[in-house]
């Protein structure tokens, strides 16, 4: 399992301690792969993220977490590391929008 901890200060000054985790992908009977993803407290339930292979399932899981964090920030929130320093969301997103 991999995990990420981020502290969010919402636009209305609410503090959220976010813990995102991705479990190792599991092969399904149909040949696809699924990662169980938790993004507490932004999502109430764990999410099953399906990919065509294990890499794709992990990639989509990471993209989902980053999309949720981006949405929170675009709504006027601030993202911080647990130590209070600025969370480097842009570094995580670098290169994702490039067309090749």
Strand content: 25-35%
Uncertain runs are none
Helix content: 25-40%
User: Would you report the number of β strands?
Assistant: 6
Categorize the overall geometry: elongated
Describe the structure in your own words:
With 100 residues, the protein is α+β, with helices and mostly antiparallel strands. The protein has one domain (2-82): Double Stranded RNA Binding Domain (2-Layer Sandwich). The chain is built from 2 helices and 6 strands; from the N terminus they run E-E-E-E-E-H-E-H. It has helices spanning 54-74, 89-93; strands at residues 2-9, 15-22, 26-27, 33-40, 47-51, 78-80. Strands 1, 2, 3, 4, 5 and 6 form a 6-stranded antiparallel beta sheet that branches. A hairpin with a 5-residue loop joins strand 3 and strand 4 (33-40). The longest helix is centred in the middle third of the chain and has 21 residues, at 54-74. It starts with a strand and ends in a 7-residue tail after the last helix. The mean pLDDT is 93.
